[in-house]
Please model this.
Amino acid sequence: MTELVRYDAACRAIAEAASIDEVKDIRDKAVAMRAYARMAKNFDMEAEAAVIRLRAERRVGEMIEAQKTTTGLNTGNRGRRVSEKPTLSDSGVDKNLAHKARTLAGMSQQQFEDVVDKTRKAVNKASNTAVANETKGQRRADKMGSLASKAMVMPTEHYVVAVLDPAWRQEPWSRDTGLNKSPDNHYPTQTPAEIAALQPPLTRDAIVYMWTTTGMMRIAQTILEDWGLEYRSHMMWVKERPGKQMGTGRWSRVDHEIVLIYTQGKPPAPADSDRISSVLYSPVGEHSAKPDEFFDMIRRNYPPPVPLLEMYGRKQRDGFTVLGNEVEP
Model:
């Protein structure tokens, strides 16, 4: 109700103003009021302030056109007055504001009201996004606090095969909106140094499969090589998505993930009959979840009693020792 009273009073003041200076003053106060409302998360006030600004700017445009036909305006000559007529700068109206004011004034009443309506909707949409992000942010903080308390404890046993799906930390373009699609929104992430410090316990002859995003592939290779492992090959999971949904990415829409294959010593390669294509087509499941077919392939290639390790896992898996802060003991 307070915002409505303030809005009505501002509209009356704009209509009753006798000079461009007065309307410009109302417009500047609306700009300040919107900034304050945004900080205070008063979205109703923010929307009304945005509309008051539009109405004031349209009124400025109308008064500019009216003044042209009455006293006239001094357009100036390279910064020098050519007459005693007022200039727009005398009223604090710069070229950008003058252009916008004339544009708004040139609209029909219906066109202008459409702009007002779109402005209100844009502010409301932004406010809804802000509320949603804040709610998600609190849920994210609660979840991260719970998971961070569960440190990954390395086992004393050594493994012939280790599968790693590190929680790569990748900074989004925007911490406000980008986190909705960022791994940080789902689980605690780690820097490359933190990942490198968690070298899996391997037997003398062992194989490591490390999942990596396209953006972190070079870093993943560096970590594996620093562990003294040797590159052998890689596989690619092509993510099948419903409809026309696409992946995210800065340089391209990434619809695949890579698993690097490195070895230590001289472990046996899979038998000819057990080798599968380097390209795996499988639907996308929960965030970060990898295809079950991939783990089926490893169990087939290295059946019991070969010891298998999965690090950064999110559920128990037959045949594997699974380490991860979301895995039930």
Helices lie at 2-16, 20-39, 43-69, 95-105, 109-148, 192-196, 217-226, 292-301. The two ends are 55 Å apart (CA to CA). The CA atoms of residues 26 and 56 lie 7 Å apart.
